[in-house]
Automatic annotation (TrEMBL), chain A:
ABC transporter domain span: 2-227
Pfam families cross-referenced by the UniProt entry: ABC_tran (PF00005)
The species this protein was found in: Actinokineospora globicatena
Lineage: Bacteria, Bacillati, Actinomycetota, Actinomycetes, Pseudonocardiales
Entries under PROSITE patterns matching the protein: ABC_TRANSPORTER_1, ABC_TRANSPORTER_2
GO molecular function: ATP binding; ATP hydrolysis activity
Protein name stated in the entry: ABC transporter ATP-binding protein
Keywords: ATP-binding, Nucleotide-binding, Transport
InterPro entries in alphabetical order: AAA+_ATPase (IPR003593), ABC_transporter-like_ATP-bd (IPR003439), ABC_transporter-like_CS (IPR017871), P-loop_NTPase (IPR027417)
Family: Belongs to the ABC transporter superfamily.
Record bears the keyword Thylakoid: no
Keyword Lipid metabolism among UniProt keywords: no
Listed Gene3D superfamilies: P-loop containing nucleotide triphosphate hydrolases
Length: 314, 241, 254
């Protein structure tokens, strides 16, 4: 269980993380979602005690990271696969880490085996491809057989095979009852990997919910209506308590399906040129949500205001 | 602490820079002693002649020690380090200790190696290490190297950049300390308290007008290193990794 | 010409050259002020003595010149550079030229700045630059800085690591050259032909080093050449080093 309470970090004038509170439940994969520069990495560094919060705190099983005894046995993390001395071999890198937390030397070979780096264990890490570096980073995270794992954009730059490998790996870790906290700026990726989602934008919390709920809310369906004269239909829709929005010549209706709108059109004797269901793409929805403003915060929390969603193909 | 020392030892020796530095430091000092021995004439070769190259070794060790910490910042392994062991003070003290011990070993090997080389080339009874001053001049080299390594790690921690740290560590003893003496009036007084000048009095004996004797000089030099290290620890604890 | 512009943009859009310039000027001019301020009747000021900080400026300029190329390797921008202009010799010559010009400007500012501040602090001492020696002692600083910058760029290309290149340059300039004198018999002769000692001849040339008071300027060079042939030799040394660096860079993977 990771718990952030009022976590805040400013770098000079930049407010990277702003009064962020969330919790990461045990035994599940929790996605940490936000666009570039949202403050994901900063938050993770603060959880790991690398950066000191300007305010608030982050606790792991009720303790600050700095107070953990032999922390690698509790928390494993891969924040950046490049945090390795290029002239050190993969094995040497894991050896010193193992030694620092009194982990048995044979554990190094075990984790190398798990991530499939045994064959290149004695090669310089500087010569590794991105995928290999990433595997080395994961090996380091697994070293202490920790219950809590943090990964910062682990699939960044990986090929499809690597992405699949990581995805399966996360699931396996969660099935083993571990707490996995993984960041990404791709909602579509997280929809496949994570069961829970913590979404932030500009350092602030936007939502915390299960992935299912979030996706359902974020991709609320709308219907596009086109016709020469829509005044009566618009009034009728308003009367029915359905929200509408003009988009050029079109009317975008949310909260009512095509059949019902068709009925209503017939009743108001409206000529329709088009009546088509629209499905918002995950990425667009996500961009809308995290894009510019804090207002979305409450909107998502009390159920979405569909007017903020852009229909597909637009 | 032994765990941390072992960790830092693994880290140091699994990169190439300590090997390079040891090799260079020994090559330069002992090579210089050989050059001096071979070309010597007029009067017997003395112990001090064999130690002319000490400063080469000292500067190389200083660079090595600074790199031990600045490369951690350069490759962000300092974050992996603090992630594995969040007690930053302990980590940095362990690193400083390991680097200082290596520096001491390099210093002793360099000093005795130089002495032996010179002795082998053109030795005589005058080359014998007998007095306290002789012992300080040779065996003391390791101590000065170790304390210098502490200074270098501290400066490296404060500056975090190889280029900056090395420039400071080389320009200070080689240029600043020598140039201040030129300031009319106060120059000589300032010079008397410059750390590396003081350290060389421990090795080469203090002139009667010097403010401190040899052992007090070493203590002063060590004090300077300790103050710098404490400052570095305070800063590293406060700063984001 | 385009290449010069490219290299100029690259140099001035990072921070380290500005820092180095600032430090170099502060150290040299500051030292000039210190010397002037503390001079008294027993140790009167002269033109050479205003230039005591020249050695500080030199090492800082060399650090700046080294970083101009080693940071390209550090951040792999050298690859972007060679992609943009595959003609590596021209690129490196352009870089050396821009860095050398920058170094020359720093040198002149440092030298005349030190001299100027001394004149301001001690207005009653006549510090007019008259003789050829005095002109070289002040105006020559820029030339020595420029050529040293070329040496530094060459070493930077060869070594490629900031730490290594800076260590080589500073240890050579500040330690190897003075220490060779300690080698019995041959030491002094070797020292006479050490490159930076030769370059120094331009600045501290004429006066007989044995007769000169220490406080009359930076330590005099004992090079056997006259000031101008000496700087010619140093220029040739810099050119040869740069040539080697270019050959190596051409053959090596970027
Ligand atoms: N050390 C630092 N100094 C100054 N500003 C910083 C620092 N680290 C992060 N920031 C700023 O804080 C904000 C959040 O950065 P952070 O790296 O945490 O975002 P992120 O969500 O991880 O983004 P990405 O998806 O691109 O990795 C950014 O505006 C960034 O510029
Ligand atoms: Mg990030």
């Amino acid at each position: 269980m990771i718990e952030a309470v009022g976590l805040t970090k400013s770098y000079g004038k930049t407010l990277a993380v702003d009064n962020l509170s969330f919790s990461v439940p045990t035994g599940r994969v929790t996605g940490f979602l936000g666009p570039n520069g949202a403050g994901k990495s900063t938050t993770m560094r603060m959880i790991l005690g690398l950066d000191t919060p300007t305010g608030g705190s982050a606790l792991i099983d009720g303790k600050r990271y700095r107070d953990l005894h032999q922390p690698l046995r509790t928390v494993g993390a891969l924040l950046d696969a490049k945090w390795v001395h290029p002239n050190r071999s993969a094995r040497a890198h894991l050896q010193w880490l193992a030694r620092s937390n009194k982990l048995p030397a044979k554990r190094v070979d075990e984790v190398l085996e798990i991530v499939g780096l045994t064959a290149v264990a004695n090669k310089r890490a500087g010569g590794f491809s991105l995928g290999m570096s990433q595997r080395l980073g994961i090996a380091a995270a697994l070293l202490g057989d920790p219950q809590v794992l943090l990964f910062d954009e682990p699939v960044n730059g990986l090929d499809p095979e690597g992405i699949l490998w990581i995805r399966k790996f996360m699931h396996r870790l969660a099935e083993e009852g571990r707490t996995v906290f993984v960041s990404s700026h791709l909602l579509s990726e997280m929809a496949l990997t994570a069961q829970e989602l913590v979404v932030i934008g500009r350092g602030k919390l936007i939502s915390q919910s299960s992935t299912e709920d979030f996706v359902a809310q974020a991709t609320e369906n709308t219907v596009r209506v086109r016709g020469p004269r829509l005044t009566d239909l618009r009034a009728a829709l308003a009367q029915a308590g359905v929200s509408t929005r003009d988009e050029g010549e079109n009317l975008v209706v949310s909260g009512m399906d095509c059949a019902d709108i068709g009925e209503l059109a017939a009743r108001t004797q409206t000529v329709l040129h088009e009546l088509s269901p629209q499905r918002g793409s995950l990425e667009e929805a996500f961009m809308q949500l995290t894009g510019d403003s804090v207002e979305y915060h409450t909107e998502i929390a009390d159920g979405p205001t569909p007017a903020t969603l852009v229909p597909a193909g637009k | 602490m032994t765990t941390l020392l072992a960790t830092e030892r693994i880290k140091l020796f699994t990169t190439r820079s300590p090997w390079w530095s040891a090799f260079l430091a020994l090559g330069l000092t002992i090579g210089f002693a050989a050059l001096v021995g071979l070309n010597h004439s007029g009067g017997p070769l003395l112990v001090e002649h064999s130690q002319f190259g000490t400063q080469f070794g000292l500067m190389v060790v200083s660079v090595m020690a600074a790199l031990a910490i600045t490369t951690e910042y350069r490759f962000a392994t300092i974050r992996a380090t603090f992630q594995a062991v969040p007690k930053r003070t302990s980590v940095l003290v362990a690193k400083t200790a390991v680097v200082a011990i290596l520096a001491a070993v390099i210093g002793e090997v360099a000093a005795f190696g130089s002495w032996l080389t010179a002795y082998a080339i053109d030795g005589g009874p005058e080359m014998a290490i007998t007095t306290g001053a002789d012992w300080r001049m040779v065996a003391g080299v390791g101590l000065v190297f170790a304390v210098t390594a502490v200074i270098a790690v501290a400066v490296g921690t404060l500056v975090r950049q190889s280029a900056g740290a090395i420039s400071i560590l080389l320009i200070w003893p080689l240029l600043v300390e020598n140039l201040v003496v030129l300031i009319p009036g106060v120059g000589a007084n300032i010079h008397d308290w410059m750390p590396f000048t003081v350290a060389s009095r421990f090795l080469n004996g203090a002139e009667p007008i010097a403010p401190m004797g040899p052992w007090a000089s070493l203590a002063y030099f060590t004090g300077v290193a300790a103050v710098l290290l404490v400052a570095a620890l305070a800063v590293a604890n406060k700063r984001d990794a | 010409m385009t290449l010069l512009a490219v290299e100029r943009i690259k140099l001035f859009t990072t921070r380290s050259p500005w820092w180095c310039t600032l430090i170099a000027l502060a150290l040299t001019v500051g030292f000039g002020a210190l010397m002037a301020g503390t001079a008294d009747a027993t140790e009167p000021l002269n033109i050479a003595a205003t230039q005591f900080g020249y050695g500080f400026g030199l090492v800082v300029v060399m650090v700046m010149a080294t970083l101009a190329i080693t940071t390209e390797y550090r951040f792999s921008t050298i690859r972007a550079t060679f992609l943009a202009v595959p003609n590596r010799p021209s690129t490196l010559v352009a870089k050396a030229t821009v860095v050398a010009i920058m170094a020359a400007i720093i040198g002149e500012l440092a030298a005349f700045g030190s001299w100027g501040i001394a004149s301001v602090i001690k207005p009653d001492i006549d510090l007019t630059i008259n003789t050829a020696y005095e002109w070289r002692a002040v105006a020559g600083v820029g030339l020595v800085y420029a050529l040293s910058a070329v040496v530094a760029v060459a070493v930077g290309v060869l070594v490629r690591h900031s730490a290594g290149a800076i260590a080589v340059l500073l240890i050579w300039n500040q330690l190897v050259e003075p220490l060779v004198q300690l080698i019995p018999k041959v030491g002094d002769d070797i020292h006479k032909w050490m490159p930076f000692n030769i370059a120094n001849k331009l600045i501290t040339g004429d006066p007989d080093p044995t007769a000169r008071n220490v406080l009359q300027g930076p330590p005099p060079s004992d090079a056997v050449l006259g000031p101008w042939p000496a700087i010619g030799v140093f220029a040739a040394f810099a050119a040869v080093l740069l040539g080697i660096a270019i050959v190596v860079a051409n053959r090596r993977d970027a």
